DNA sequence: GTCTACATTGCACATATTGCAACGCAAGCG
DNA sequence: CGCTTGCGTTGCAATATGTGCAATGTAGAC
């Protein structure tokens, strides 16, 4: 389709994985060294890659800047960061923040458990997450205006990843109703049998759900019931983030200070 | 040099800034629409850009993933994140984390003050920072082995950004000695006259300084003396992060541990 | 000193990329 | 309704663009 661009992309990918010498770059592309050189020089001029002192090429700062530009414009991430990290510390589970962007739901932050870094989850910031087979996906879906929801689901071909996947419109719709009633969602190994999640919605100033925060654990660490014990803390965190975005919770029970509806217990 | 790759990069850049229609893309490149289309399709296949429902192109998750891969491999960032956010909350100033990468010093994290978001600082994650006209730059420089320091400074052409810039080897060397004596650095508007910083070094398990954390404010918010009042908290934070990286403080006035005979003068 | 191994430059060739023109498709409007 | 307008898409021929080769430059090993 566009050969040289493909090659450039390939080199970017490789250089992100490990430092790349020119000869190595030429080899992986199957081209002459001079060709690889010119591609790398072009990428370097945009700081997409950077030359190390050793003459190898590694991912450059230009790319990082760009993605920060894209992610950073989502102020949500800034506002949420500290809360998510506190939540991680207190629950000791991995915490995710996902947002609806265009027509997919993307992880925009992830806080790993520093202790259990042996078991890294496959999720990654920037990656899209299943819209119907994840706690965050279902949470956002549940609170979307129905026409939006239909738009997102229309191109979806349901796939039954595991026994618990909601793999058709009917059962998914029922699940979404349940989520709206509870105010939170779970993922009972619906995408990967051994991965459990609970998620809660995050609202913007208009009250619209635009994102979701989740706590994740693999089954050997905690089962779903154990995860649910963190629900009050998760919901509190999600509320705090919503408040920072300008959300005013609907009519606090105590009507004297609507500003500070951060509630329940702390 | 490599025309089509340049064009592709240009489109990536633009799409990061705001959604791009095909016609718009063709216009900014000054090429035919079909050409722009093919470039965008190629980028889309690598998920460097993504088509929105409206048919416009925006930055895709592939790029974000890549940069996260690069940033994430710096475990430092993960370890530091929570501490930096706590520091930000307590001082209410903007907090930066910068790391020596290759031969430049790059911001790898930034915590904005949510309150004063009116005054956004020009710094950005992924962007290189002046090596001699910034608190973090000077901090890292100060503790670098001298041959490394020379290597980094050799290509530098000094530029006097403001009245306070250390714009020659002599005065910079004196400043670095001062920094080593104090254990922290300041930036008294040395790059931008109205931007003040204090910075502290972060050490890895071998005791080597690999990064620096800083607190920043613009002059109208706080002058340098006011910033300095946060020094104890900043130094504490830097130490905490160092500890998470496996650093064992030389602690003890007990002089029996020859392992850490560095610092002071080298 | 010569020898490798590697990066880099200049140039002729041909391939991949380009622009064009025609087409499809939807929206706007008399 | 049917015309127009604006947009994205496809096929194809021309050539500008990117390519490989061979020669040169550079650094380190022996």
Task: Give a written overview of the molecule.
The structure is a homodimer of 266-residue chains. With 266 residues, chain A is α+β, with helices and mostly antiparallel strands. Helices cover 43% and strands 18% of the residues of chain A. The first copy, chain A, is built from 10 helices and 8 strands. Chain A has helices at residues 3-17, 22-29, 33-45, 61-72, 75-91, 135-143, 146-153, 169-182, 224-228, 231-244, and strands spanning 49-51, 57-59, 94-101, 104-111, 128-129, 185-188, 195-203, 209-218. The first copy, chain A, has a 6-stranded antiparallel sheet, sandwiched between helices. A two-stranded antiparallel ribbon of chain A has the order 1-2. In chain A, strand 3 and strand 4 (104-111) form a beta hairpin. In chain A, helix 2 packs across helix 3 (33-45) and helix 6 crosses helix 8 (169-182). The relative contact order of chain A is 0.10. At the A-B interface, helix 1, helix 3, helix 4, helix 5 and strand 4 of A face helix 1, helix 3, helix 4, helix 5 and strand 4 of B. Chain A binds a DNA duplex (30 and 30 nucleotides) through helix 3.
Q: Quick gist of this model?
A:
The structure is a homodimer of 266-residue chains. In chain A, 43% of the residues lie in helices and 18% in strands.
What are the main properties of this structure?
homodimer; 266 residues; alpha+beta; 6-stranded antiparallel beta sheet; elongated; disordered C terminus; DNA-binding
Task: Let me know the average pLDDT of chain A.
Answer: 86
How helical, in percent, are the residues of chain A? 40-55%
Q: Regarding quaternary structure, how should these chains be classified?
A: homodimer
Question: Any low-confidence stretches of chain A, pLDDT <50, length ≥5?
Answer: 255-266
Number of strands of chain A: 8
Neighbour order of strands in the largest sheet of chain A: 5-4-3-8-7-6
How many DSSP helices of chain A?
A: 10
Q: Estimate what percentage of residues of chain A fall within beta strands.
A: 15-25%
Distance between the termini of chain A: 57 Å
* Principal-axes shape call of chain A: elongated
User: Largest interface by residue count?
Assistant: A-B, 60 and 60 residues
Major sheet of chain A: size, sense and barrel closure? 6 strands, antiparallel
Class by alpha and beta content of chain A: alpha+beta
Q: Give, in order, the helices and strands of chain A.
A: HHHEEHHEEEHHHEEEHH
- Computed CA radius of gyration of chain A, to the nearest angstrom: 22 Å
């Amino acid at each position: 389709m566009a050969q040289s661009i493909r090659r450039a992309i390939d080199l970017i990918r490789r250089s992100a994985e490990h430092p790349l010498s020119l000869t190595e770059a030429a080899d992986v592309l199957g081209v002459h060294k001079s060709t690889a050189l010119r591609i790398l020089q072009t990428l370097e001029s945009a700081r997409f890659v950077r030359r190390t002192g050793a003459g190898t090429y590694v991912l450059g700062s230009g790319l990082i800047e760009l993605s920060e530009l894209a992610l950073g414009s989502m102020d949500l991430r800034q506002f949420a960061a500290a809360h998510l990290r506190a939540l991680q510390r207190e629950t000791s589970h991995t915490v995710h923040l996902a947002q609806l962007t265009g027509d997919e739901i993307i992880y925009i932050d992830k806080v790993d458990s520093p202790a259990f870094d042996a078991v890294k989850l496959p999720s990654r910031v920037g990656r899209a997450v299943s819209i119907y087979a994840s706690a965050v996906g279902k949470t956002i879906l549940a609170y979307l205006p129905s026409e939006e929801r239909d738009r997102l689901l229309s191109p979806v071909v349901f796939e039954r990843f595991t026994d618990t996947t909601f793999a058709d419109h009917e059962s998914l719709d029922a699940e979404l109703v349940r989520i709206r009633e509870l105010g939170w969602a779970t993922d009972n190994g619906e995408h990967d049998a051994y991965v459990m999640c609970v998620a809660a919605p995050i609202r913007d100033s208009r009250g619209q759900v635009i994102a979701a925060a989740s706590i994740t654990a693999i089954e050997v660490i905690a089962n779903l019931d154990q995860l649910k014990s963190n629900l009050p803390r998760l919901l509190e965190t999600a509320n705090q983030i919503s408040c920072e975005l300008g959300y005013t919770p609907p009519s606090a029970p105590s009507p004297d200070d609507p500003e500070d509806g951060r509630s329940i217990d702390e």
